[in-house]
Each structure stands twice: as structure tokens, then as C-alpha cells.
Amino acid sequence: MSELIKVEKLVVRYGEHTVLDRVDVSLVRGEILVILGGSGSGKSTLLRHMVGLRAPEEGRVLLFGRDLYALEEEEREDTLKRIGMLFQSAALFNSLTLEENIALPLIEHRGVAPEVAAVIARMKLAMVGLENSARLLPAEISGGMKKRAGLARALALDPEVLLFDEPSAGLDPVTARALDDLILDLRARLGVGIVVVTHELGSINAIADHVIMVDHGKVIAEGPLADVRAMDNPVVHAFFAREAPHETVGERPIADLLREVGK
Ligand SMILES: Nc1ncnc2c1ncn2[C@@H]1O[C@H](COP(=O)(O)OP(=O)(O)O)[C@@H](O)[C@H]1O
Ligand SMILES: [Mg+2]
Fold this sequence. Notes:
Layout: E1 3-14, E2 17-28, E3 32-36, H1 43-50, E4 58-63, E5 66-67, H2 73-80, E6 83-86, H3 98-110, H4 114-127, H5 143-154, E7 161-165, H6 173-190, E8 193-197, H7 201-207, E9 210-215, E10 218-224, H8 225-229, H9 234-240, E11 248-249, E12 252-253, H10 254-260
Parallel strand pairs: 3-8, 3-9, 6-7, 7-8
Antiparallel strand pairs: 1-2, 1-4, 4-5, 9-10, 11-12
Helix pairs in contact: 3-4, 3-5, 4-5, 6-7
The structure holds adenosine-5'-diphosphate (ADP) and magnesium ion.
Magnesium ion binds next to helix 1.
């Protein structure tokens, strides 16, 4: 099967600090890969190297079979346009409406006429359930809607791969759940490959086909979710053992709420 993304023995160092140590990752069409790991384990660093933001010290990143960091600048840019990334902050322009935010990459990167770009932008907004919010500014919408708008923008250039860095961070559980449903829906409708960094157990259970767990810069577990869950590794075990008693609704542990309602 041809891989959309193939990371081979990636080594990333900042000074003396080895952040990623011979990490391998692969993603195929239609697959949702979830990257797990504690804070500071190198998850965002891994995503950044998949979208060409920094060259690795060693190893290779192949996108659609092409060695990203060996390509000429122009070819590299064309290759990267086939990937859409939703950053944690959603990174929308505050002075532009949602429609203008999404039209912008079409006008800038594709030379699409503004009035056509506006129509496409509205289609992308409809895909994420924001068809009635096209004229609003980012400041006028909720956090969950901002994530959706950022996603609509990531979809502007019809990417074949979508990357999400902690998409549900800062969202309430209901909104986070809706975002998971949207991710599943996009995979079904577009057939794209998707990489999600998250440590929300609810999200992992809802969306992951395949997971990798990074710990101190190394991949310590990799495979289908059920296989990784069942692994006999203390770090993996601790990660998944954070279940129910510690899960929260808003700021409140579920266990407290259950006790209150007398269950
Ligand atoms: N630009 C940078 N310069 C130096 N150290 C960095 C830089 N980016 C990340 N790091 C370090 O790399 C490690 C992994 O960071 P990161 O990939 O953001 O972790 P995660 O996303 O898993 O929380 C951290 O120790 C962080 O301090
Ligand atoms: Mg991170």
C-alpha cells in the first residue's frame, strides 16, 4: 500500500537534547492515526517535521512518496499544499470574516478569482457545519466554532492528509465529542488520511484506528488501538489506566458527579 506519510528514523535535536530518537511513522489513505504521549514527549515536534517547518537532524520524511527535505523549494511547497494542518490555536485572521479567512489561501495559492473563492469558502464552511456563520469574525464565535473554522480553512485546498494538534484542548466534552464526529465524517466523505495528537481518552476511543505512543522521544508502542491497549508496558498501562475515576465533565471529576447523584 502506498503511504501518504512515511517518517523514517527521524532524529530531532535541540542542542544536547534529543527530542525524537529514530521515530518511524506511516499513514495510509483512509486511516486515522493517533499520536499519544505525555506533555513534552515530542508530539508537536513530530507534526512540525511532517509539514516542513524544520529539517530533521537525521532520517527522512516522505510525503506521497517524496522525500520532503530533499525536494527543491517549489516542489516542496507544492507537496505541502496537499496537507492541511489544524494548529492548536486555529490561527485565523481576526480582521477577516470566516469566509474571507478560507478564501484567502485559494486566492493566494491557487490564483482563484475572489468571487469563486468566496463560493468555495462557503462550501467548506458548510462541510464543518458553519454555513450560517460565513460573515462573522473570529471574535464573534465560540471556541468550538473557531476549531471548525480552522478546519474549514485546512480543507480549502482539498488536502489528501489532515493533521490535528490537540484539537479538543480547551473544549467542553460535548463540543469535543462533536469535533470527533466531524473528524470521522470527513474521513468517510473525503477518504483522507488523518493524524491526530491527543491525550483525551474519549477521543482516542472514538476515532483511532492505529495509535503510536511516544515517550522520551521514542516510539514505545505502535499498532491497532486494541493491541496497544493490551500491551504489557508500564507507561502504556499508566496512560490508559487514567480511565473513569479521573475523567472530568468540565472541571469536575466524573466520580464526584456520580457520587452527588447517588450512584
Ligand atoms: N524550538 C525548540 N527549541 C528547543 N526545544 C524545543 C523546541 N521545540 C520543542 N522543544 C522541546 O522538545 C520537547 C518536545 O516538545 P513538544 O514536541 O512540543 O512536546 P509535546 O507536543 O509532546 O508536548 C520539549 O522538551 C520541548 O521543550
Ligand atoms: Mg504539543
